[in-house]
Amino acid sequence: MIKEEQEVTYIPSRYSKAFNSYSRNELRWVIPILRSVARSCHIAFRYPVYKVLKAVAKIFLMNEVEAIFFAYMIRETNWDIKDKLITQNS
């Protein structure tokens, strides 16, 4: 018996669909907010702060309002890059 090859079709997940929609519509509004946060960060010259913020925004599919609150939280908490938790897990 010869098995016929079955055609494999790609079915995107719900997250893939949401990410594609997010990338087309929402990301362009979030990018300027993240860029301004990264520029104002004193460690941005040594570390890829903008890339990290952009990756976090993409993973969590942040909209413009969430990005504003995220930026506010980052600016107000003044996280220390030499914090024990950060240096231990890097």
Structure, described:
With about 90 residues, the chain is mainly alpha-helical. The protein has a domain at about 25-80. The chain has five helices and no strands. It is elongated. The N and C termini lie far apart (about 55 Å). The relative contact order is 0.12.
List keywords for this structure.
5 helices; elongated; 90 residues
Structural class: mainly alpha
Give the beta-strand count: 0
Ends distance: 55 Å
Number of helices: 5
* H-E string: HHHHH
Mean pLDDT: 84
Q: What low-confidence regions span 5 or more consecutive residues with pLDDT below 50?
A: none
Helix content: 55-70%
Principal-axis shape equals elongated
Kindly estimate the percentage of residues that lie in beta strands according to DSSP. Answer: under 5%
How would you characterize the largest beta sheet? none
Q: What is the rounded Rg? A: 19 Å
Helices and strands in order, then pairings?
Elements: H1 14-25, H2 27-40, H3 49-60, H4 64-77, H5 84-88
Helix pairs in contact: 2-3, 2-4
Concise overview:
With 90 residues, the protein is an all-alpha fold.
